Amino acid sequence: MEHGVSVKLCFFVLIALSVLRVGHLQPELVMAAEEKPVVTLAHIENFEPFAVAKEGKSEGLAIDIITEALSRVNIKVVFVGEHQDKLDDLVSKGRADGLAFLGINAERKKIYDFSNPYLISGGALFVKAANPVSSDLKELEGKIVATPLKGPLAGYIQEKFPRVNMLTEVKDYAETLQAVLDGKADAAALNTQSGAVLAKQLFAGKFLLPKKGFLEVPIGIGVLKGKQEYFLTRFNEGLKAVLADGTYDKLVEKWGVPAATKP
Q1: Which CATH superfamily is domain 38-120+217-261 in?
Q2: CB-CB contact of 137 with 187 (8 Å)
Q3: How many CB atoms lie within 10 A of CB 187?
Q4: pLDDT digits (tens, 9 = 90+) for 180-226
Q5: Nearest to 194 by CA among 205, 209, 214
Q6: CB–CB of 113/225 below 8 Å?
């Protein structure tokens, strides 16, 4: 009997040790099986070259920068393209965690908390490569600058540089650039990145790409105030890594935007 009890006792001890060993590994197994945390960010459905929604998938410069930054901190991001007028509602109603592309200013900071700027947008001047003039608006006083009347830059130039002559009878960016080539204007005032991409696509080699914008707007991820502090901190960490290891520079080259894009 004593021998039988001893054998049983040894058997139960071995089972217990096995359970302890398995139990010791469980946290690692659970961690390995866990999925990445997921964040949903909304963007304007068609805003080249920053973000464009095509067949349920988003692509663009902003999309790539955000995706790369969040991959460094093990966060998965899902993008939702929507009409500009509906973006705020997506966030306020909880259908999105934040806005992927938002200009940082004092007025918006009343509603949103922002990440560190991940790119600099705004307005820049595009001049002929063959016969360049100054790309400083101050030095273009008395000369003609073309920009669409409905765009955000016309009002800014008229207010800040009233001595610059404006040509606003241009319907879009392509027509604005053509006006410069035709000698109707000395420079085109366009969004820094969109203007650069279009100039390269339609008029390769005919325009100088701006090294600096005359109006610089920092762009970041916006989330409702007090709601996503941890996420913003993690994104900022990932962005820092992407800027440091050269990935950001490769994305700038991929999308053909000026170096002035880099924050």
Answers
A1: Periplasmic binding protein-like II (3.40.190.10)
A2: no
A3: 30
A4: 999 999 999 999 999 999 999 999 999 988 888 899 999 999 999 99
A5: 209
A6: yes
